[in-house]
Amino acid sequence: MIRAVDILRQRLGTLRPETAIVLGSSLGPVADAVTAPLRIPYRDLPEFPQPKISGHSGEVFAGLLAGKPVLVLRGRGHPYEKGDAAVMRPAIESLQLLGVTQIILTNAAGSLQPKMRPGSIMLITDHINFSGMNPLIGEEGDKGFVPMTAAYDVKLADALRAAARAEAIELHEGVYVWFSGPSFETPAEIRMAQSWGAHAVGMSTVPEVILARRFGLKVAGLSVITNLGAGIEGASPSHEETKSEGVKAVDDMVKLLTRFCAAGEGS
Ligand code: HPA
Fold this sequence. Notes:
Blueprint: H1 4-12, E1 19-23, E2 35-41, E3 59-65, E4 68-74, H2 79-82, H3 89-98, E5 102-111, E6 121-129, H4 154-166, E7 171-178, H5 187-195, E8 200-202, H6 206-214, E9 218-228, H7 239-247, H8 250-265
Parallel strand pairs: 1-4, 1-5, 5-9, 6-7, 7-8
Antiparallel strand pairs: 2-3, 3-4, 5-8, 6-9
Bound molecules: hypoxanthine.
Residues 108-110, 179, 184-185, 201-203, 226-227, 229, 237, 242 line the site of hypoxanthine.
């Protein structure tokens, strides 16, 4: 059976990025910052998720950001699409087999604190898995017992903080809680998440963090805040709002990731 990794190896030739970036749905335009990209649609990659969410279909961009080789995955599969928490497993395993050592996962998220407004960016320092799912259920042998104590790499986080400072971008920090979706939360659920010490809420990323750690990749996470959580200041989030507000943070995200790569962390 031809696997996605074989096709990626062949198309990439000698390009062997160590850094991969996964773009949340509203952040697709960040991929346009990749120079001289080789573009490989997910439909050419067996086992890669075929995103069905409005926006665009999935595509791998392989090229340079600030002169450093990167693989940018535009589009992800979400566990709420088919109930498969491991939908991103083949993609993440392919990255590891290609030699990627670090992955930056981005998403759109709701804020659980009024001071973190839509349009801002939050560095994920830890997470809460409230989905009842885990992408490693059924893992053979002992490989599923992945420690999650230091899931978010301290050095990558520091590098992103430094990049934000250099670009004068305010970078919030906090805990991301994963609700399966696709329905949004109730105000009561949002109050519960706040009382648990979470700062942002979303429907992705956590399973990818778990998979990336399973495959030994260093992980960083960035949330673009698209709305206040349900009930906060009367908020009633919608898919339309998350898409339109997320786009507003694209410029800052490009600056942040470009500076991060330029600083050498992305090489
Ligand atoms: N809840 C869950 N997922 C989200 C939200 C939200 O408020 N905003 C963007 N993604």
